[in-house]
Task: structure prediction
Amino acid sequence: MRAIECNVACCSVCHHIVKMPSKKGIAICPRCKEEVTYRKTNSIQHTWALVIASIVFYIPANMLPMMHVQTFAGTQSDTIISGVIYFLHSGSYLIASVIFIASIIVPITKLMILIYLLISLQIKNTKNKIKKKKLYALTELIGKWSMVDVYVVAIMIALVHFGGLSEIKAGQGANYFLLVVILTMLAAIRFDVRLIWDIKEDNAT
Result:
């Protein structure tokens, strides 16, 4: 028997189990005083909006420079891909791999998983519920690694300014990429994984 059938819900802030007044009621958590509902309000619509916004911002994040490097020889601007290619050519395969995975593979994987889960809910697909739950857990696990590229730019700016031999500035691509990271994290937060179990389990596996 599920919690919703027992008229109890979990507080989204402190995870305290709260007795609900009715099937569609709203309660106040006695521990943290947060409003408690059975499901996140308009979870699917909000998640779709955040996912679409992430996709829109992901395009300029990859097309615009992540950073501008100014040295005695001139100024060089690098996008995510050109930065990966630069590190490959310089023999820094580990750094190139980390940036490629964190900046390309992770965001795309997270967006694809969220889109798959959203479509599955909307078409009321009852199959593989446990696998879907694991996929959602994967988005939470890998989400934080999307920040690696932003951290790399920030650290390089600090180190180079400290050295004083050249200058590195963050490009517009870094701003858009940061927006993508934030929006995908918010999308994962707004998605209510409990909705997977609300679909009728006819022939579910």
Remarks:
- The chain has two domains: 1-38, 41-198.
- Strands lie at 8-10, 17-19, 27-28, 35-36, 67-71, 74-78, 167-170.
- The mean pLDDT is 81.
- The helical segments are 43-63, 80-89, 93-122, 129-143, 148-163, 172-190.
